[in-house]
């Protein structure tokens, strides 16, 4: 057997031994992410027709505490997906002061792919990235009204990993 044939056979055997892990892409608006340490989850939902909000999601913490999340892209040369998590915000016509009082975290939402390359949270319609990064999430949530005896007790870390896709 020639060296070339042995080489091709070894490649064929190696490829056959690799399990098939092809998954259909999940659009970000249907993605579900989880954080291993606290068990927290993020469920994205379609935003609808909002001209300013590019992503809508919920963060579910222990004790069934739910934070409402949005992302809006800033304008200018350094455009970023600015995220906000809110807890028990009033509905209807809300003042900036009322919105600030119920916001428990704000910041840029980053993403990371399988190779660890860091990017930004994509807008709806794009494939969901492997991981999402919410810088300083834990310390912000620990200082919020949502934390404590009447709220959640397990503080999530900053990184959430893609768990699946809603149907």
Write up this protein.
It is a single chain. By secondary structure, this protein is α+β, with helices and mostly antiparallel strands. The protein is globular and about 40 Å long. Residues 1-22 have low confidence and may be disordered. It is built from three helices and ten strands. It has one domain. It has helices at residues 3-17, 96-102, 137-142; strands at residues 31-34, 41-45, 53-60, 66-73, 81-86, 103-108, 110-112, 118-120, 131-133, 159-165. The N and C termini lie far apart (51 Å). Strand 4 (66-73) and strand 5 (81-86) form a beta hairpin. Strands 6-5-4-3-2-1-10-9-7-8 form a ten-stranded antiparallel sheet.
Number of domains: 1
Radius of gyration: 20 Å
Span between termini: 51 Å
Number of helices: 3
The side-by-side strand order for the widest beta sheet comes to 6-5-4-3-2-1-10-9-7-8
* Percent of residues in helices: 10-25%
- Gross morphology is globular
State the secondary-structure class: alpha+beta
Estimated share of beta-strand residues: 25-35%
Number of strands: 10
Largest sheet: 10 strands, antiparallel
Mean pLDDT: 85
Task: Flag low-confidence runs.
Answer: 1-22
Pattern of helices and strands: HEEEEEHEEEEHE
Quick structural overview:
It is built from three helices and ten strands. By secondary structure, the chain is α+β, with helices and mostly antiparallel strands.
Detail the topology: elements first, then pairings.
Elements: H1 3-17, E1 31-34, E2 41-45, E3 53-60, E4 66-73, E5 81-86, H2 96-102, E6 103-108, E7 110-112, E8 118-120, E9 131-133, H3 137-142, E10 159-165
Antiparallel strand pairs: 1-2, 1-10, 2-3, 3-4, 4-5, 5-6, 7-8, 7-9, 9-10
